[in-house]
């Protein structure tokens, strides 16, 4: 396969074949009609002008693939043509070879040829004036510039435009790629946020439903079933209300509706009251120590994160904690909002709800997104959850 690709890359382009045929045919036609560029020169016979013509015409086939070779042969050919009667076609072919060497050659050649041909034009002009000492000597310099410097400058201009266009295309592709990456990251972040919200809003109610339904099935008495059904109904209604709120947020893309109330730490008392009702079957009691100064609420996103951390900690306590007291502490000092939840650790009697560990992950993510610190683990016979959040919301670098 590599050999085939190399062969294709060395095959003359069809435009180059056309140029070679047309230019050589035109030069032969001029020679046959006796049209010479310098008929007064008689150093060599007239047919000698055909040698550089045919040589340069053949180089047109390699103008794209071998620009160094074609420029070398072209330069020697146009010099040799000066010792014959001359062919205008040979000179025209040389200008195209000079142009192609700049356009298709290496970058170093493309940079050097315009400078080199410009210096050659200046040197030839000065030398002609010094030798002939007539104003007509300027024509020699002008012709030299037209034949060498002009094509090189044109080729350099075209190459610069092509490179600029290619660079712009690459920048556009990179910009599109970065935009797609940003979009994907934004979608992933939004999905993670909605997953946390869904888990925190619904998991507490579903856990209570699972625990009390299991208790009702395990203890088959009318009083137990009636109390369990009451708790199940209350959590079902609250869970449905939370789900409707979340669905409303998802559907309200235009923001035309009134903003939905966001839970804050002022609702901790109600949250613990609900936990007390749900925890009767588990032998749990709940105590709140709110040490925040009055009138100094934290930023809304910070209070929401703290509320969700307490909510998830209470849910975990209902599912896993041993009978005892669950203590919730909240403090606001020195620009930091600290949240702590201690629950009894150990074996518990009665029904238990399964856990997946998503709650701890969600609490840690909420804390880190706000630039805070989160820890959770066992300390003796107590399971401790600690979160330290900046009271003012700040961006976290990715």
Structural description of this entry:
It is a single chain. The protein is α+β, with helices and mostly antiparallel strands and 398 residues long. Helices cover 64% and strands 11% of the residues. The chain contains eleven helices and five strands. It has helices at residues 2-10, 14-33, 50-59, 67-81, 88-104, 107-132, 137-218, 222-251, 268-278, 300-320, 358-369; strands at 284-291, 324-333, 336-344, 373-379, 382-390. The chain has a five-stranded mixed β-sheet with strand order 1-2-3-5-4, covered by helices on one side. Strand 4 and strand 5 form a beta hairpin. The chain is rod-shaped. The model is unreliable at 1-7 (pLDDT under 50).
Distance between the termini: 45 Å
By DSSP (H or I, 4+ residues per run), the number of helices equals 11
Strand content: 5-15%
How many strands? 5
Low-confidence stretches: 1-7
Provide the succession of SSEs. Answer: HHHHHHHHHEHEEHEE
Overview features:
single chain, 398 residues, alpha+beta, five-stranded mixed β-sheet, 11 helices, 5 strands, 64% helix, 11% strand, rod-shaped, disordered N terminus
Secondary structure blueprint with pairings:
Elements: H1 2-10, H2 14-33, H3 50-59, H4 67-81, H5 88-104, H6 107-132, H7 137-218, H8 222-251, H9 268-278, E1 284-291, H10 300-320, E2 324-333, E3 336-344, H11 358-369, E4 373-379, E5 382-390
Parallel strand pairs: 1-2
Antiparallel strand pairs: 2-3, 3-5, 4-5
């Amino acid at each position: 396969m590599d050999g085939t690709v190399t062969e294709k890359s060395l095959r003359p382009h069809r435009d180059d074949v056309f140029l070679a045929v047309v230019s050589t045919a035109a030069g032969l036609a001029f020679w046959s009609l006796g049209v010479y560029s310098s008929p007064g020169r008689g150093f060599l016979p007239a047919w000698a002008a055909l040698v550089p013509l045919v040589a340069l015409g053949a180089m047109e086939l390699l103008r794209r693939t071998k620009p160094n070779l074609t420029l070398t042969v072209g330069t020697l050919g146009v010099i040799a043509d000066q010792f014959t009667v001359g062919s205008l076609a040979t000179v025209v072919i040389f200008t195209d070879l000079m142009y192609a060497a700049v356009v298709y050659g290496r970058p170093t050649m493309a940079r050097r040829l315009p400078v080199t041909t410009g210096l050659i034009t200046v040197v030839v002009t000065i030398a002609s004036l010094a030798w002939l000492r007539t104003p007509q000597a300027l024509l020699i310099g002008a012709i030299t510039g037209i034949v060498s410097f002009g094509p090189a400058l044109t080729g350099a201009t075209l190459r610069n435009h092509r490179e600029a266009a290619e660079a712009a295309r690459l920048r556009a592709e990179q910009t599109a790629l970065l935009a797609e990456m940003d979009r994907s990251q934004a979608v992933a972040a939004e999905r993670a946020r909605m997953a946390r919200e869904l888990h925190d809003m619904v998991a507490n109610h579903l856990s209570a439903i699972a625990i009390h339904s299991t208790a009702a099935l395990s203890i088959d008495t009318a009083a137990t079933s009636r109390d369990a059904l009451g708790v199940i109904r209350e959590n079902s209604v609250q869970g449905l209300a939370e789900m409707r709120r979340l669905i409303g947020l998802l559907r309200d893309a235009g923001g035309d509706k009134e903003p939905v109330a966001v839970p804050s730490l002022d609702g901790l008392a109600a949250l613990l009251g609900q936990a007390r009702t749900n925890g009767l079957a588990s032998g749990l009691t709940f105590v709140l120590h709110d040490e925040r100064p009055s009138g100094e609420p934290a930023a809304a996103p910070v209070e929401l994160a703290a509320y969700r951390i307490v909510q998830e900690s209470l849910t975990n306590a209902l599912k896993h904690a041993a009978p005892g007291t669950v203590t919730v502490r909240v403090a606001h000092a020195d620009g930091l909002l600290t949240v702590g939840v201690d629950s009894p650790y150990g074996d518990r009697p009665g029904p238990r709800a399964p856990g997946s560990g998503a709650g701890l992950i969600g609490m840690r993510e909420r804390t880190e997104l706000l630039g805070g610190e989160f820890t959770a683990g066992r300390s003796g016979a107590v399971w401790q959850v600690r979160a330290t959040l900046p009271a003012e919301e700040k961006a976290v670098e990715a």
